[in-house]
Amino acid sequence: NTNNIFAANARERDRTHSVNSAFSALRTLIPTEPADRKLSKIETLRLAASYIAHLANVLLLQQGEGAEQPCLQYQPRLQGGGTAAAPRPICTFCLSNQRKLVRLARSRG
Length: 109
Fold this sequence. Notes:
Blueprint: H1 2-29, H2 41-61, H3 70-79, H4 92-108
Protein name: BHLH domain-containing protein
Pfam families: HLH
Domain BHLH: 3-55
């Protein structure tokens, strides 16, 4: 039936629009370099997972926003006898910050 096909197509358009809107909203929450970079859907999902891991490390260290590279700082603290689950040794966001610091040091010296 033609009406069923039109209704199914309309539902699919609505679903696609809903998924795309959700990805757009998620993209606004993930810091990127450069800030206006448009991420693909898979990049958005991967970076969101990495950012969540990064924020979890910040919380595990109980440090504020000004903390530098919390994912790198976490491992030495575990060696002191901690029993918490080990996070990733370095995340995308700490790595990006580390690269910025190296570039800044090279430009100054």
